[in-house]
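REVIEWER CHECKLIST
Item 1: Sequence provided? yes
Item 2: Single chain? yes
Item 3: Sequence as submitted:
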Amino acid sequence: MTNDSSKKFYGTATIGEKGQIVIPNAARKKMKLTKGDQLLVFGPHDEMIALVKLSGLESFISTLSEKLNTLNKTIKKKKK
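Item 4: Structure as written out by the authors:
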């Protein structure tokens, strides 16, 4: 669980001619982003986007999947 102190404002980004943006340096360092990293782009609201580092999401989903499998096994045992 996160608290308000973990939320950061890293600055602004301007959209260039080709639709590209530059992620502020502090955010790149914090997320350990390097050239070639893939980001998922979500639109939780009409005027908002969120960027998620793909490698971090893959790790999270893998861990969550393991936990869900364990939970499912426990539930099946309890039903017997």
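Item 5: Key structural point noted by reviewer: The mean pLDDT is 87.
Item 6: Recommendation: ____
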